[in-house]
Amino acid sequence: MCGQWKQITLALLLCLLSALAIHAQDKTPKAAQKIIGYTITLVDGYSFDVDEYTKQGDETWVRKGNIQRQIQEPIKSIKPILEQPKAEAAEAAKPVTTATTVNTTATETKPAAEKPIWIYLVDGAKFRVDQVQEQADGAWYSRHNVSIFLAKERISRIEYEAPGTPATTRKTADWTSGNSSIDQLIRTNANRFGIDPYLVFLVIEKESRFHTRALSPKGAMGLMQLMPGTARRLGVRKPFDAAENIRGGTQYMKELMDMFGGKVDLVLASYNAGEGAVLKYGRNVPPYRETRDYVKTIGKRYGLTGRQPGAQTDVPEPQR
Q1: At what angle do helices 289-302 and 264-273 cross, to 10 degrees?
Q2: How far, CA to CA in Å, does 225 sit from each of 90, 113, 304?
Q3: C-alpha to C-alpha distances, 166 to 55, 119, 176, 184, nearest whole angstrom
Q4: Number of structural domains the chain divides into
């Protein structure tokens, strides 16, 4: 009888120790999850993700990849995006087996391949988009999580490309001016000066619609609409020559990138209104309607945040 009580006492003691160990394990603090980005929500409800953000006084700057820009709209909240623990990610990736599938032959189901969509512009350029919704007055399209409206008069046609064609497998085949020589000049000079070729493509499309002989009322010349003084400073002797013009315009964009620390909205504003105007307004987009529309149009298509700069009444005073 005494032996039985000893066994019972030992069993109770082991159960108590096990319970204490489990309780202590629950009390052990979990490792802090790594922050891999931030979700920024504006007061109007629009949200977008960025890699990091910084506060400089009353200004909020964000970075997405190599793109930096100032958020000029009122911000409602900034929430961190936490890295999913590997165990949870692996658990989520496990296939769910149900009673109805146990006796069936295991077959791997591949998701249906999406058909790439191309929007052709009236000037001969075209670019790939993720989704498109056609309307009577134009089309809404999305590219890299940015939704943009394109007026009907700008669109030549919209094509849904069959998957598996050679164009869909090329990394640089998501845009073209319609002229392979110009495309190659864009890529060559963009790589030379460290500029995203898609950004150069958008600037040329906005500036000249890829017309090599374009001439503005103010005297801007060629594909990238170089002013005479800028062309001379950059060593462009033949501004209507595609090779010289794109080289000079891309070099100018590189100078602006260096001047404004890679902030694309300020680079675009400077390209349109001159760097002097951006400096005059305290390194902000000037309150000129043309410049604001220019930054909004190209910046949105490039995917800065899909938002236009702040209201025109909310601008700093010129620096004296």
Answers
A1: 140
A2: 53, 40, 23
A3: 45, 18, 15, 18
A4: 2
- Other C-beta atoms within 10 Å of 186: how many? 28
Distance CA 163, CA 140 (A): 22
**151 occurs within a structural domain:** yes
Task: Examine the fold and report which residue of 160, 176, 192 is the final residue of a domain before the chain moves on.
Answer: 176
Same domain, 77 and 119: no
Structural domain contains residue 73: yes
Strand partners, 77: 41
Give the CATH number, domain containing residue 70. 2.30.30
The yes-or-no answer on residue 161 being catalytic is no
pLDDT in tens, the chain (320 residues): 566 666 777 667 666 766 666 665 555 555 667 888 888 887 766 667 778 888 877 788 877 766 677 777 788 889 888 887 765 555 555 554 444 443 434 334 444 445 678 888 877 788 888 888 887 788 888 776 666 777 888 888 888 765 444 443 334 458 899 899 999 999 999 999 999 999 999 999 999 999 999 999 999 999 999 999 999 999 999 999 999 999 999 999 999 999 998 889 999 999 999 999 999 999 999 999 999 999 998 988 887 643 333 333 334 444 44
Please give the Cα distance from 239 to 247 (Å, whole number): 10
State which residues form the domain around 148.
Answer: 115-176
CA atoms within 13 A on the CB side of 158: 20
**Residue for token pair 């600037």:** 203
Q: How far apart are the C-alpha atoms of 308 and 296, rounded to whole Å?
A: 5
Q: Is there a domain that residue 303 lies in?
A: no
Q: Pick the catalytic residue: 73, 205, 207, 275?
A: 207
pTM above 0.85, yes or no: no
Residue at 167 is within a domain: yes
